Batch of 2 targets.
Target 1
Amino acid sequence: MKDLVEKKGIQIKGFLGIYLLAVLMIWLKTYITQLTQFNLGVEGTLQQFLLFINPLGSALLFLSVAFLFRGKSKMSMLVIVYTLMTILLYSNVMYYRFFSDFITLPTIFQTQNFGDLSGGVFALFRPSDLLYFVDVAFLIYLRVAKKEQFKQVKTGFVMPVIAVAFALMISSTNLFLAEKDRPDLLVRGFDRSYIVKYLGMYNYAIYDTVKTAEASSERALADSSDITEIINYTKSNYAEPNPEYFGLAKDMNVIYLHLESMQTFLIDYELHGQQVTPFLNSLVKNENTLFFDNFYHQTAQGKTSDAEFMLENSLYGLPQGSAFITKGQNTYQAAPSILKDYGYTSAVFHGNGGTFWNRNVVYNQFGYDKFFDASSYDTTDPKNMAEYGLLDKPFFEQSKSLLETLPQPFYTKFITVAHHFPYKMDQELVTIDKATTGDESVDNYFQTARYADEAIEEFFTYLKETGLFENTMVVMYGDHYGISDNHNKAMAQIIGEEVTPVVNADLQRVPLLIYVPGMEGGVNHTYGGQIDLLPTVLHLLGVETQNNIHFGTDLLSAEHNEVVPFRKGDFVSPTIYSLDGKYYDRSTGELLDASQFELADQMKANVEQKLNYSDKVVNGDLLRFYSKDGKVISE
Ligand code: GP9
Ligand code: MN
C-alpha cells in the first residue's frame, strides 16, 4: 500500500488500489455481519450466494462517490462514505440486538424506540464491537499520515466508469435473482429481514428511505379539511345495527381465529369419502354459530396483512404493497383502541417473528396491548415448525398459558400458519390422503387444511374445559384464497365443474363463522366481505359505530350493502358480478344483458368511489384529524 501511494508515476493506480481495498474490507465486514449478527433465515444455495454477493454492489457504488472529487478530497470522501457505511451497519447491529429488527427512518424520528434503547446501549456493547472500526481507523490513518501523496491524485474517467458499471451489473443481477426467488420483493415488502437477506444492509437503507419519502409526501399534502368529505361519505353509507343482534355479545371476550388460506369450498367438502374439515363443519351446524356462505376475501398484495388491516379498521388494503408496511406509522382507530374504552385488554398471538408484515410496528398503532410473537413461544423443536413459524397444534397449546395472563374481557386474535402455501407437512402429521389431480399444491392443500381443523378442535376443547366458551365470542375467518387461479384446471376436478369467471370469483369465498353463546345460529347467505367484519363485531358487542370512519357495513343489518368490492375495482353482488371489465349475470353465469348495464355501471362507480375514499384516508393518514368520538381535529 505504501508503495502504491508513494510512487508518483502510479498515483492513479494508487487511489484505485485504496478504493478496491476499501470495497473488499466493507464487503467482507458486511457479509460477516449479515451472516453472524442477524437472524435472516437464509436457506439454500441461492440465498447463501445472494447474502454473500449483495454488499459488493453497494460497496462499489457508494464508495465510487469519491471519484467525483479531486486531489485530497478524493481520499477524504472515501473515508467519509466508508465511515458512514460502517456507522449504518453498526447501528443496525446494536438496534437488532435489542429489537430483533432493523432501523427504519420513522423509528428514528417518530417513536420512542431509540429512547428505549439509549439507556441500554452500554449493556448492548461488546468489546469485540471495536473490530467494526479497525478498518475505519486504518483508512483515517492513511488519509492523515499520507496526506501529501493525495494532493495530486487524478483518476480520469475510465476507472470510475468501469467501477460504476461493474457495481450496477452486480446489483441488477442481485435484484434479478432475488426477485426470482421471492417475486414482488420490492413491491410487497413482506419483512425488513427479507430485504436485508436478499439485497443487503445498504440497499435496505435505500429501500427504506424511498418508502419513507413516498409515504411522507402524500401525508404532507393532506390537511384536516380532507376528512370532512370522507365523514360525509361514511355517514351516508352507515347501516343501522339490527336490534335483534345488537349487544348480544356485550362485555364478552372476543377471540378471532385467523384461518390461514381457508376457502369456503372446503366446508362440507368430501375427499375420498371423508370430510376434510369435520370440526369446522360441526361448528357450522352449532346452534349458536352463524355461518356466512357468501363471504369474500378482499385482499390484494398484502395478503394476510390486508385481511387483518380490513378487519381491525374497516379500511381497504392498498392497491399496491401492504398498508401494514407502507402505512404502518399512521394513526388508526382500530378495534383494540375502540374496545379499550369499553374495558377490553387486547392481544395478538402468532408463532412467527414479530417483524413479518411489520406487525411489531403496526399493532402498536392499532392500540394492541400485547403481541405474543415467536419470541414468546418455544420454537426450538424443528418438528414443531412450519415455514412461517410454529405449527398450529403446538401454537394453540402454548398459547393457553399466555392467554391466561390477560384480564377479562379480552379482545384477541390468533394467527395460524400451518395451512399455508405450499401446504407441505410432515407425513407423521397427515390424517387424510392427498387429492389426486396431479397438481401438487392443490393435492397437498387438503392435508394441511385437515391439520388446521384438528388444531382448532383442540383449542375449542380447551375453551370448553376452562369455561371461556360460555362468555366468549369466537370469530373465525379465512384470510385469502389458498389456491390461486393458476391452478384452475385442477380446481375444476376438485369442484366438479368448469371454473368460469363467475365460479372463479366464487372461489374467492372464505368461511366466516361467528359463535356467540346464546345467539341463534344458522347459515346466512348475505353477500359481504372482510371490510364488513368490524362493524358487525362491534354491533354484536353493543358498541355504536355511527361516528367511526368505516367502509364496510354490519352484515346483520337490514341496511347492509351487498355489493362486495374487490381491490382492483371488480365486485360481486347477489345479482351482478363485475370481473375484469365484463359484467355477468350471477344467476346464469352468462354475460349481462345490455339492458342492465346502467345499473351495473352505477354499482361499479360506487365501488370505485368507495375504494378511492378509503385510499385517501390511508395514504393521507387522515385519521390523525379525527377523534374516536367523531370530532374533526384541526392541526
Ligand atoms: C406470516 C403469515 C403469512 O406471519 O401471517 O402471511 P401470508 O404469506 O399469508 O400473507
Ligand atoms: Mn395468509
Note: Residues 1-12 have pLDDT under 50 and may be disordered.
Target 2
Amino acid sequence: MSNPGSFPYIRGRRLRQNENIRRMAAEHHLNKADFIVPLFVMEGKNEKVEIPSMPGYYRYTLDLLIREVEEIVLLGLPSVLLFAKVPDNKKDNEGTEALNPKGLMQESVRAIKKEFPELGVMTDVALDPYSSYGHDGIVRNGEIINDESVDLLAKMAVSHAEAGADFVAPSDMMDGRIGSMRNALELEGFQNTGIMSYSAKYASVFYGPFRDALDSAPGFGDKKTYQMDPSNVIEAVREAKLDEQEGADIIMVKPGLPYLDVVRAVKQAVSVPVSVYNVSGEYAMIKAAAEKGWLDEKQAMAEALIAFKRAGADLIATYFAKDMARLL
Ligand code: PBG
C-alpha cells in the first residue's frame, strides 16, 4: 500500500471532476463590480468612429457617448474612465485646453453625472492629449519638466473635480503629483474626490493602439524619462508606496498581462485597492488573433481577465468590460 499523504490518497483531479466541482474549487471569481470601462470622447455630433487598431472599440461624440454609458449602466458596470480626443488646433505645449471649464472632458463629466449620478466617473489626468508634443508634461529644451507640469496637473484635477468627477486618474508619472493633487483638491473643497494613481506605469509599446485612438503619440523621443523601465519591479513598489503616502485612494499598475508579477508585488505592499490596466495593445492582440481564427476570443478574454484577479488586482480597466459583463 502506498503512503497515506500521497498518491493515490491525494488526487488533485477530484476537484476538477465536473463544472460544479470546479466552480466550488475556484479560488478567484470575476465580478461586474471589478471593471472600469475606458471611454474615448471626441468633439462633434452624432458620430462614432471605430479605432482601426482596436476592432469593435469606438470614439464617440458626447451625444452618442451618453447612449453608450447608458448601456454600460444597464449591464451593471460600476465605473467609466474618460479620455478626450483633442483637435490639433487646441493643442499647445502648456495643454491650455486641459483647464478649459467648458472643455470636452469637463462637459462630458457633467453630462454623464447629470444622467447617471450613481455611476463612478473617473477622468484621465495627463497632458499628452492636449500637448502639441504629445508628452505628458510641459516640454522645455527637449526635456519634460517635472514641477511646473505637476502644478498644471493639479489644476487639471481640480477642474475635473469641479465638473463632478468622482475620481481623477493621473497617468502622467511626474514625481510628486499625487501629493500636489490631493492638496489642491482639499484646498478647493473637493474632499470627496478620489485619486486613482497610475503609480507603476511602464514605458510600454502596448499603448500603441491607444495613441491611435487619441492621436497622442509623442512628437519626439519617447516617454522613458518618466514612465518606468520594464525591467523593474522593486521600483514599482516604491512608486506605489509613495503614492499611497501622498494620498492615492487606488493604486494602478499598467500595462496588465506582461506585468502580473508587478500587480502581485504592489498588492502585497499597499493597503488600498489595486487596479490594473488591461491596455489597448493587449486588447488588440486578442482581437487580431481571433480575427485570424487563431484564438477563441471569448475564452482568451476570460482567461486573461481571471489572471488579473489571481495576480491580486481588485479592479480591472479593460476594453473587454462590456463583453465580459455579458458573460457573467
Ligand atoms: C496617456 C495614457 C496612455 C494610456 C492611458 N493614458 C498612453 C501613454 O502613456 O502614451 C494607455 C492606455 C492604453 O494603451 O490602453 N497619459
Note: The chain has a mean pLDDT of 96.
